[in-house]
């Protein structure tokens, strides 16, 4: 569905488009593919909570994307080192129809905007309008077999990525979800943010967004999705198994070994606020973990 700008822009909830373009001009972003790539999308009314959006100035310039460097400004500064031309996403493993999708195929799926909370394990958070489609829609197309118990996500590996010259992590960046988590309606494949195609620093051209889990579960720049029988290892589990578990659900009652997770600092705010159980999505997802000891399965 093609909507006009008036239809998709709610002045109260949504950021002022002209202001946004102005902030991009100030940041020297105009003329880059980011502003040229407006997406066709509709607002999903079920996911338009009355939350104050994070200023894109923060969400687009304060990033974690170790392939592009480890400091928060590196991903934006090195954004042009990520080549997204002819991007393909391979879906393989335990499914009857393994398929290679190109971005045209994926952008043909109906794109919707959803405003989600996002909480990094480091203790900062944001509220951003993602554009994308439920991962479940894509997975159904390849017809997972009964052996598909988990889903593994593999991000790009490329010698031009400055962070991959160092073994900061076990490259390529890998993450995983249980099949029911992957099929959950909240789990999104994002292609855009703030009304535009994803800029490179936020994981162009396509990334995962799992809003009830710590941010590192939301893999950027995905090239492969594997349906598997056994629980996969994520790059963070390989790096520090005592600190980063497979589940990594946002939980204010379970501390990181080195800091409390009870509070978070919204980007752009001086003050901290309380972190919510499952990042505020408890009603939607608590059932997935019924009977599980959340301290053990962290
Ligand atoms: N491929 C890849 N994906 C990644 C990361 C990364 O380093 N590489 N960092 C993760 C972390 S720790 C966070 S908090 C989020 C940050 O997303 P944002 O920069 O869009 O806010 O991306 C996640 N996805
Ligand atoms: Mo993070």
Automatic annotation (TrEMBL):
Its EC number is 1.8.5.-. Part of the MsrPQ system that repairs oxidized periplasmic proteins containing methionine sulfoxide residues (Met-O), using respiratory chain electrons. Thus protects these proteins from oxidative-stress damage caused by reactive species of oxygen and chlorine generated by the host defense mechanisms. MsrPQ is essential for the maintenance of envelope integrity under bleach stress, rescuing a wide series of structurally unrelated periplasmic proteins from methionine oxidation. Residues 81-236 form the Oxidoreductase molybdopterin-binding domain. It is an enzyme of class 1 (oxidoreductase). InterPro entries: MsrP, OxRdtase_Mopterin-bd_dom, OxRdtase_Mopterin-bd_sf. The gene is msrP. Mo-molybdopterin binds at residues 63, 66-67, 120, 155, 202, 207, 218-220. Keywords: Metal-binding, Molybdenum, Oxidoreductase, Signal. This is Protein-methionine-sulfoxide reductase catalytic subunit MsrP. It catalyses: L-methionyl-[protein] + a quinone + H2O = L-methionyl-(R)-S-oxide-[protein] + a quinol; L-methionyl-[protein] + a quinone + H2O = L-methionyl-(S)-S-oxide-[protein] + a quinol. It holds the Pfam family Oxidored_molyb. Belongs to the MsrP family. Its cofactor is Mo-molybdopterin.
């Amino acid at each position: 569905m093609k909507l006009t700008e008036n239809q998709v822009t709610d002045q109260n909830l949504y950021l002022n488009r002209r202001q946004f373009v102005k902030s991009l001009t100030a940041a020297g972003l105009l003329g880059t593919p980011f502003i040229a790539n407006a997406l066709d999308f509709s607002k999903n009314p079920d996911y338009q909570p009355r939350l104050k959006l994070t200023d894109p100035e923060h969400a687009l310039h304060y990033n974690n994307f170790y392939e592009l460097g480890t400091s928060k400004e590196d991903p934006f500064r090195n954004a042009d080192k990520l080549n997204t031309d002819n991007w393909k996403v391979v879906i393989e493993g335990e499914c009857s129809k393994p398929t290679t999708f190109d971005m045209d195929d994926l952008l043909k799926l109906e794109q919707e905007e959803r405003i989600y909370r996002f909480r990094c394990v480091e203790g900062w958070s944001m509220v951003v309008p993602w554009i994308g489609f439920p991962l479940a829609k894509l997975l159904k197309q390849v017809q997972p077999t009964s052996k598909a118990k988990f889903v593994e996500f593999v991000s790009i590996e490329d010698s031009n990525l400055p962070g991959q010259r160092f073994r900061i992590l076990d490259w390529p960046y890998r993450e995983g979800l249980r099949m029911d988590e992957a099929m959950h309606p909240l789990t999104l494949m994002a292609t855009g943010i703030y009304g535009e195609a994803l800029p490179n620093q936020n994981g162009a051209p396509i990334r995962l967004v799992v809003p009830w889990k710590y941010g590192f579960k939301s893999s950027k720049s995905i090239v492969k999705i594997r349906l598997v029988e056994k629980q996969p290892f994520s790059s963070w589990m390989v790096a520090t198994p005592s600190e980063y578990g497979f589940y990594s659900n946002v939980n204010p009652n379970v501390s990181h070994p080195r800091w409390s997770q009870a509070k978070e600092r919204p980007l752009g705010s001086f003050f901290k606020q309380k972190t919510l159980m499952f990042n505020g999505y408890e009603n939607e997802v608590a059932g997935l973990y019924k009977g599980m000891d959340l301290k053990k399965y962290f």
